[in-house]
Write a structure and sequence with these properties.
This protein is of the alpha/beta class. Among the domains are: 6-71, Rossmann fold, CATH 3.40.50.20; 95-157, ATP-grasp fold, A domain (Dna Ligase, domain 1, 2-Layer Sandwich), CATH 3.30.1490; 339-461, Methylglyoxal synthase-like domain (Rossmann fold, 3-Layer(aba) Sandwich). It contains 18 helices and 18 strands. It has helices at residues 6-9, 26-36, 48-59, 69-76, 78-87, 101-111, 134-143, 206-223, 253-260, 264-272, 277-280, 326-336, 356-368, 377-385, 403-408, 422-437, 446-461, 469-473, and strands spanning 41-42, 64-65, 95-98, 115-119, 129-131, 153-157, 163-172, 176-187, 197-199, 226-236, 239-246, 290-296, 317-323, 346-350, 372-375, 391-392, 412-417, 442-443. The protein has a seven-stranded antiparallel beta sheet, with helices on both faces. Helix 13 links the parallel strand 14 (346-350) and strand 15. Helix 6 (101-111) packs antiparallel against helix 7 (134-143) and helix 12 (326-336) crosses helix 17. The longest helix is centred in the middle third of the chain and has 18 residues, at 206-223. It starts with 5 loop residues before the first helix and ends with a helix. 38% of the residues are buried.
Length: 476
C-alpha cells in the first residue's frame, strides 16, 4: 500500500504486508513498483489521485489491474466522455471548456445561467461553485484565477430543482451488480461527501430508479469496467442526466456496504484479480429498511466558514441512521451527527421569496404539533397572511434584540434558513454559524427541512426501533 497520509492508515497498520508513506506521484509510485515487482497496481481505492497517474503508469509499462487506463481516460477527458455518452445516446447537461476568463464568460452565456463552474483536476470539489449571473461569474473568475492557469475550467449547465443520485456498482467486464442507488435528500448541487443520502431511494418513482439502473449498467459494460464504478446522476421530471462517471471506489462505498451487508470493496478486489461475478454469488436483496447518511462537520472550529452546503466538500466525517421507516432513519442520522430534533418550542423561519410558498406546508405541520414561530419581517408577514401566528424578530445587523440572542439563550429549538442574496446572505451566514456552535438543528434547503418535519411527526406516533447490523447481515 502506498499512502501519503498516515492518519488514514494509522488504525489499519496490518492491512498490507508493506506500507509506503510516499506521495501518490507518478515518479514515487513507479519507484515502489520497480522495487517490489508486484503482479500489478490497483488504482481504484485511492480516490481521484491514482486515476490521474494511471495513463502515465501504463505508459511506463506498469500493469494496471482491473479497469484499463484507456477506460479511465475516457471518463476523465471531458471531450472523450462527451463522445462516449453521445454514442450511448445518454443525456448530460450542456457544457464547455474555458482556458481564460473571456472564454469562460462566453461559454456560460452560451449555456445559460445558472452554471456549475469548477477547475479540472482538483479534489473534493475544490473551488467548485454554482454561479447564477455574469456579475457572480466575474467575481468567481477573479478570485480563482490560479486554478485554471495550467488546466481548463469546466462550465456545466446547472439543472435546477433536480434530484441528485449516486450509484455504486461492481462489474467484471461483462456482468454488473448494482450495490446501491443513493438518493440525495437535498436538491442537486451539494457535494456527495456533504449530502444527506438515503438508500434505497425514498422520493423517486420506481420507473425512474429502473431507468437509472439500466443506464449505469450500459455505461459499465461499454467501458469494460472491472471492479468498482461510481456514477453521479440528476433526475428532473422524467429526464435522467449523467453528471459524472468515476471508474473507482467512491466515498459512499463503506456506507452502502454497511447498509446492504455486501462488502463491495472485497468483492471488487476479487473481480480485479480475475474472478467472475456469477462465481461470487452476491445476494440481490430487496432492502426492507432505510439507511440515511448524514455528514458531520467541524464548522464550530472554523468560525469564518458559512455552514451552508454547496459543490465544495466540507465534511469531516459521517453518521448513519437505519430504521424500517425513512423519517426515523433520518432522525437517527441527525442525532448521530450531534443534532437533536425538538419536540416543541420555537422555530425560526427566514426564507427568500421563491421559497415562501414551499415552507407553508412545513409550518402548518409543525403548528399542528404545538410549535411556535419566529421570523424576520418579510417571512413573518407572509406566514401571518396565511393564518399562522408569528413573532417578528430583528435581523442580525439591527440593534436591540435579534435572532442571535434567542439562539444563544436556548429559546430557538430549530431553524429553517435557506440562502438569499445581499445583506440577508451575510445575516444568514452569521445565523448558521451561531446555530451550529449551539447545536441547534439548522436546515438550509427545503427538502432537508421537509425530512426533519417528517421525522418529528413520525416520532410522535411511533418510537424508533433498535436495528443491529450484525443481526441483519451476520457477524463480519
Amino acid at each position: 500500500m502506498v499512502n501519503s497520509n498516515p492518519e488514514t492508515v494509522s488504525t489499519d497498520y496490518d492491512i498490507s504486508d508493506r506500507l509506503y508513506f510516499d506521495p501518490l506521484t507518478l515518479e514515487d509510485v513507479l519507484a515502489v513498483y520497480r522495487k517490489e515487482s508486484p503482479e500489478g497496481i490497483i488504482v481504484q481505492f485511492g480516490g481521484q489521485t491514482p486515476l490521474k497517474i494511471a495513463v502515465g503508469l501504463d505508459a511506463n509499462r506498469a500493469r494496471i489491474l482491473g479497469t484499463s487506463s484507456e477506460a479511465i481516460d475516457e471518463t476523465e477527458d471531458r471531450e472523450k466522455f462527451d463522445r462516449f455518452l453521445t454514442r450511448l445516446d445518454l443525456l448530460r447537461p450542456r457544457n464547455g471548456l474555458a482556458r481564460n476568463s473571456a472564454q469562460a464568460l462566453r461559454t456560460a452565456d452560451r449555456i445559460g445561467y445558472p452554471v456549475l463552474v469548477r477547475p479540472s483536476y482538483v479534489l473534493g470539489g475544490r473551488a467548485m461553485k454554482v454561479v447564477h449571473d455574469e456579475e457572480e461569474m466575474v467575481e468567481y473568475l477573479s478570485r480563482n484565477r490560479e486554478y485554471f492557469r495550467d488546466h481548463p475550467l469546466l462550465v456545466d449547465e446547472f439543472i435546477e430543482n433536480a434530484v441528485e443520485l449516486d450509484v455504486d456498482l461492481i462489474c467484471d467486464g461483462e456482468d454488473v451488480f448494482i450495490g446501491g442507488i443513493l438518493e440525495h435528500i437535498q436538491e442537486a448541487g451539494i457535494h456527495s461527501g456533504d449530502a444527506t443520502m438515503v438508500i434505497p431511494p425514498f422520493f423517486l418513482a420506481d420507473r425512474l430508479i429502473e431507468e437509472v439502473g439500466l443506464q449505469v449498467e450500459t455505461m459499465a459494460k461499454a467501458l469494460g469496467v472491472i471492479g468498482l464504478m461510481n456514477v453521479q446522476m440528476a433526475v428532473k421530471g422524467s429526464r435522467v442526466y449523467v453528471l459524472e462517471v468515476n471508474p473507482r471506489a467512491s466515498r459512499t462505498v463503506p456506507f452502502v456496504s454497511k447498509a446492504t451487508g455486501i462488502p463491495l470493496a472485497k468483492a471488487a478486489t476479487r473481480l480485479i484479480m480475475g474472478e467472475k461475478l456469477k462465481d461470487l454469488k452476491l445476494p440481490r436483496r430487496k432492502l426492507d429498511l432505510y439507511a440515511v447518511k448524514e455528514a458531520v462537520f467541524s464548522f464550530d472550529k472554523f468560525l469564518e466558514v458559512d455552514p451552508v452546503l454547496g459543490p465544495e466538500m466540507r465534511s469531516t466525517g459521517e453518521s448513519i441512521g437505519i430504521d424500517r421507516e425513512f423519517p426515523l432513519a433520518f432522525l437517527k442520522s441527525q442525532e448521530g451527527a450531534g443534532f437533536f430534533l425538538p419536540r416543541g418550542g420555537e422555530v425560526f423561519v427566514s426564507v427568500p421569496d421563491e421559497d415562501k410558498p414551499r415552507i407553508l406546508n412545513l409550518v402548518e405541520k409543525l403548528s399542528g404539533l404545538g410549535f411556535r414561530f419566529l421570523a424576520t419581517e418579510g417571512t413573518a408577514q407572509y406566514l401571518r397572511r396565511h393564518g399562522f401566528p408569528v413573532d417578528t424578530i430583528g435581523k442580525v445587523h439591527l440593534e436591540g434584540r435579534n435572532i442571535l440572542d434567542d439562539i444563544r439563550g436556548g429559546r430557538v429549538k430549530m431553524i429553517f434558513n435557506t440562502p438569499a442574496g445581499g445583506r440577508e446572505r451575510s445575516d444568514a451566514q452569521t445565523i448558521r454559524r451561531v446555530a451550529f456552535s449551539y447545536r441547534v438543528p439548522c436546515y438550509t434547503t427545503i427538502p432537508s427541512a421537509s425530512a426533519a418535519v417528517k421525522a418529528i411527526e413520525m416520532r410522535e406516533k411511533t418510537r424508533p426501533s433498535l436495528v443491529c447490523l450484525q443481526d441483519l447481515w451476520g457477524k463480519p
